[in-house]
Amino acid sequence: MTANAPDPYLAGEVLVDAGEPVQPREVTVEALPGGASRESWMLRAGERRYVLKRDPLDELEPWSTREREFIAGRTAYEAGVPAARPVAFEPTGGRFVSSALITEWVDGTSSPRRILAGTPDPEMLLRDIGRAAGRLAAIKPALVINEPVPPHAHDAIVARFAAELDEFAPTRPVLALAVRWLELHRPPVRSAVLAHGDFRIGNMMVDGAGRLAALIDWEFARVGDAATDLGFFLLRPWRYGRDDRRAGGLGPISALLEGYAEMAPAPLEPAHLRIGEVAGQVWWGLYCLRHSRAYLAGRHHSLERLVLGRRIAEVEWDLLDLIERPPQ
């Protein structure tokens, strides 16, 4: 077994305590690939399979919390959003040492290249993705976020960007320009929504028929504007070279918006979606800078997250193009 792997017997105890029909002695643990920020493990218990997600043992200050991730996933699952069934949460100091959660296994693939190459009907998948975002837009974030919910989510998001810009990127004029653009382009006032926060190909399980099986990795769930998730979905890094298919490398934005309109409390206008895309670029740029600086400060030891800092040039290029381009 991998060094520092979760104890399989203790994992079995957690499953039993959660009401799962397993025997602790039959549980095995296997490392899963991927997971740049958190550890991921598969638990086998007879015919049953689960996913265990844990904070790295050497990370001093995790930027997100497994408890919020667990609550967000559970809330979405109960609201009918495609999501893995949540099973258990363990706090720091519990049976997994660092904070961790367990969800039921979902069959399918989250590999972006497999999804883009093997989906028989990309527009059908886009409509599935839009419907999932629409269901999310009906969830009140107060059910998940233990903090005051702002009356206008966009204004709160921009204020946070401005504060983080001063902290992480005071010498990045393109980011400052984008934040100012967001201040001047306010979407219609709507209720704040629960945003997945990392809504992209790679955090979506797609089944063998090319349909959306589950949204996964809820670690960045937060208060959002109606366009937070779909705007982020449009970012160029998640198209994997298929820039002629702006919606996740799969196809046209129209299919995404059609699915969204089927489930959301109100449709999303293209101008509002563009605001969400600019905000998504700023969020991604600040995220890249935050993690590269955290490595240099000794707060984590992930080389993969260190080199995210170099991607800020891509973000700035895309932001200038997006801000100057006429609305589509």
Low-confidence stretches: none
The general outline is globular
Quantity of strands, as a count: 9
Number of structural units classed as domains: 2
Q: Work out the helicity level.
A: 40-55%
What proportion strand? 5-15%
Strand order in the largest sheet? 1-2-3-5-4
What structural class is derived from the secondary structure elements?
alpha+beta
Q: Could you tell me the mean pLDDT?
A: 91
| Major sheet description | 5 strands, antiparallel
CATH fold topology of the largest domain: Aminoglycoside 3'-phosphotransferase, Chain: A, domain 2
Number of helices: 11
CATH architecture of the largest domain: Alpha-Beta Complex
**Alpha carbon gyration radius:** 20 Å
CATH first level of the largest domain: Alpha Beta
Structural descriptors:
single chain; 328 residues; alpha+beta; Phosphorylase Kinase, domain 1; Aminoglycoside 3'-phosphotransferase, Chain: A, domain 2; 2 domains; five-stranded antiparallel sheet; two-stranded antiparallel sheet; 9 strands; 41% helix; globular
Quick summary of this structure?
The protein is an alpha+beta fold. The chain has helices at residues 8-17, 66-78, 112-118, 122-136, 153-168, 173-184, 228-233, 253-263, 270-296, 303-306, 312-324, and strands at 27-31, 39-45, 48-54, 86-90, 100-104, 193-195, 204-206, 212-215, 222-224. The strands form three sheets. The protein has a five-stranded antiparallel sheet, with helices on both faces. Strands 6-9 form a two-stranded antiparallel sheet. The chain has a two-stranded antiparallel ribbon with strand order 7-8.
